[in-house]
Write a structure and sequence with these properties.
It comes from Streptomyces triticiradicis. The protein has about 475 residues and is of the alpha/beta class. It has 15 helices and 22 strands. The chain binds 1,4-dihydronicotinamide adenine dinucleotide and the ligand O=C(O)/C=C/C=C(\O)C(=O)O.
């Protein structure tokens, strides 16, 4: 324990950066606050450009040796990190919940096991890399995956360790070194990951973590000429800024951004299932990029759907995310709550009706909200709120349903509730979305491509898409003749 250690729910967390295998403190700190009750968790090193540059230098220095480390050894260390995550699931879960307010039970049973899986999955991916050689007019083509170099990974607060390790694990497996910049509202579990990685034997400089405000250190990271890959999850405005900053170096960029995804409920659907799917969109207090926040219901069942939805929504337990019985915790930050409430106020002023909720609760909690009487071109239908706010619109034909579903600038996901397979196939084909769920939601598999079209992102993550992004793919074509030993 040092003066830089915080005790968070009984867990020791270092508040400094992790650069070149050492803890580095900034002269200044920023204050980390728990959304559960607004209490101050403590001061975290407030990174400067100098520390951002030092982290890239450490990643650059460590790159040749890590890239040359045999695959089996890289995979072994990644599995050791997964072991470390599994041993510390309880610590990681309670620290994450304290920091971002998402449900403790989800962190324990779902999220942190997935964090370990991220490392195991990409370790195994590395060991099974293969693209069979193939021939062109007698010449042999051989594909190889060269590590790309230092990679900057910038991550958000809504699923901090899960979304960070989604990037860290494939980058490390591919042989890249990493500078991770966690979101300033949720800095803690990244620091624990540094401890776990060091204990697992990850060499110094292979994983570096710089804490701080994106607005202060983001450009230093993303415009750095030694950075070979950048992967970002977060908002569209920040993505645009990063895109501009990488232009000088043409640094390859992966962007996973927001959404305004539809849930289409057809009259032939199992209505109870459709209602369950709709209420699920409040999970994590609506702070999920994939959330289907626009409910589109076929006119003939809209009244009944709304009745059942309202009944079901009334049973949602909102409160302390550490309680097993809680369904929805707080929103991340006062600033975010003001943003959410602003969206709702403006929608109500414009004539929307709050069938459910429509106001702030105590502290950092926002009442689960369903708004009807909203126009397709209104702000509340077009913009990502990132809070527990859903809209409900109706349609009368399949054609209209598809048109409304596709009519935003996003294209991340879509969910269908229908009892008709042919309809599901027809509609799915016409939807602009990176993921379509039919009669289900949030069934996720790391093998699947994940990401969005239009303003929802650039590129895909998951499986081969993540792994290949962090590599310089090379095809070597060898002639059949010319070898001295063959004459
Ligand atoms: N798609 C998603 O998963 C997410 C979407 N959002 C959306 O963004 C809205 C605003 O949330 P914010 O926290 O402000 O998102 P943000 O996009 O500003 O933050 C995400 C990450 O980007 C970093 N960042 C900020 N400015 C940067 C810069 N100039 N260069 C490099 N990195 C920078 C932040 O420090 C953080 O680590 C939300 O209301 C929501 O609509 C936010 C988080 C996640
Ligand atoms: O958990 C997943 O598989 C994906 C989660 C993605 C988000 O919550 C996000 O990017 O906001």
């Amino acid at each position: 324990m040092t003066e830089h250690t915080l005790t968070v729910a009984g867990v020791a967390v270092d508040t400094r950066h992790w650069i070149g295998g050492e803890r580095v403190a900034s002269a200044e700190t920023f204050t980390d606050v728990s959304p559960i009750d607004g209490s101050v968790i403590g001061g975290i090193s407030r990174g400067t450009e100098a520390e951002a540059v030092a982290a890239v230098a450490a990643a650059k220095a460590a790159f040749p040796a890590w890239a040359a480390t045999p695959r089996a050894e890289r995979a072994r260390i990644l599995h050791a990190i997964a072991d470390g995550v599994e041993k510390r699931i309880e610590d990681l879960a309670i620290v994450e919940t304290t920091d971002n307010g998402a449900l403790l039970r989800s962190h324990r049973r779902g999220v942190m096991p997935r964090v370990a899986h991220n490392f195991r999955f990409f370790a195994d991916w590395l060991l099974n890399l293969e693209h069979g050689d193939f021939e062109t007019r007698g010449h042999t083509n051989h594909v190889s995956w060269d590590p790309a170099g230092p990679s900057v990974l910038i991550t958000p607060w809504n699923a901090p360790l899960m979304l960070s390790t989604w990037k860290v694990a494939p980058a490390l497996a591919a042989g890249n070194t990493v500078v991770l910049k966690p979101a300033e509202w949720t800095p803690l579990t990244a620091s624990l990951l540094a401890d776990i990685a060091a204990e697992a034997g990850l060499p110094a400089g292979v994983l570096n973590i710089v804490q701080g405000y994106g607005s202060e250190i983001g450009d230093a990271l993303t415009s750095h000429p030694d950075v070979r890959r950048i992967s970002f999850t977060g908002s569209v405005p920040t993505a645009k800024r990063i895109t501009a900053s990488v232009a000088a170096n043409l640094t390859p960029l992966s962007l996973e951004l927001g959404g305004k995804s539809p849930l289409l409920v057809f009259a032939d659907a199992d209505l109870d299932l459709a209602v369950d799917l709709a209420v699920e969109q409040y999970d994590n207090a609506g702070q999920v990029c994939l959330a289907a926040t626009r409910i589109l219901v076929e006119e003939s069942v809209a009244e009944e759907f709304t009745r059942r939805f309202t009944e079901k929504a009334a049973t949602i337990v909102q409160g302390d995310p550490r309680d097993e019985a809680t369904d929805i915790g707080p929103n991340i930050h006062e600033r975010q709550l003001e943003k959410i409430d602003g969206f709702v106020r403006r929608a109500l002023d414009a004539g929307a009706r709050a069938v459910v909720g429509g106001r702030r609760g105590e502290g950092q909690y926002y009442a689960p909200t369903l708004l009807t009487d909203v126009a397709q071109d209104s702000e509340i239908v077009q913009e990502e709120v990132f809070g527990p706010v859903l809209t409900l619109q109706t349609f009368t034909t399949e054609e209209e349903a598809v048109r409304l579903a596709n009519d935003t600038r996003f294209g991340l996901a879509a969910t269908l509730a229908t009892g008709d397979r042919d309809r599901a196939a027809r509609v799915t084909e016409r939807l602009v979305a990176g993921t379509v769920w039919v009669n289900c939601f949030f069934v996720r598999d790391l093998q699947a491509p994940f990401g969005g079209s239009r303003h929802s992102g650039v590129g895909r993550e998951g499986g081969t898409w993540s792994f290949d992004f962090y590599c310089d793919l090379k095809n070597t074509v060898t002639a059949p003749k010319g070898w001295k030993d063959h004459g």
